[in-house]
Amino acid sequence: MSNHSVQTVTTSSDKLKITLAVIAAIAALVGFFVLSDQSTIRVVVLVVGLFLAMAFMWTSQPGQSFLTFGREAVRETKKVVWPTRKEAGQITAVVFGFVLVMALFLWGADKILEFVFYDLILSWKN
């Protein structure tokens, strides 16, 4: 991935677009909950409001940077070499085996410490 530095919103038009996007998203949510008795209109208000918010955001420089980041992330994900089904099964078996051994070790350590503290040092019997 490329090493782009973090950019802040500097232009007033980008600030305005982001502000309008936030206002549109909030208005969509408020309209959705205020119009609770009208099921079809409330869904339309929500979809239109969120669409407007996305449109405002995508036309700003931070929105374009986010889209570029998303495209680069997808491109990098396609480069990953995924394990085969057999390899995934083997790795899973190793993890389960390690967890089982660790559980037995911790159980044994607990029982030994219980014996040392309660039976030898404190002389308590359950």
Verbal overview:
The chain is an all-alpha fold. It has helices at 12-34, 39-58, 61-78, 85-121. The N and C termini lie far apart (61 Å).
Write the layout of secondary structure elements.
Elements: H1 12-34, H2 39-58, H3 61-78, H4 85-121
Helix pairs in contact: 1-2
Shape: elongated
The domain count comes to 2
The major pleated sheet works out as:
none
Strand-residue proportion: under 5%
Average of per-residue pLDDT values: 88
Query: How far is the N terminus from the C terminus?
Result: 61 Å
Q: Structural class, please?
A: mainly alpha
Number of strands: 0
Radius of gyration: 29 Å
List keywords for this structure.
0% strand; 126 residues
Brief characterization of the structure:
The chain has 126 residues and is mainly alpha-helical. It is 78% helix and 0% strand.
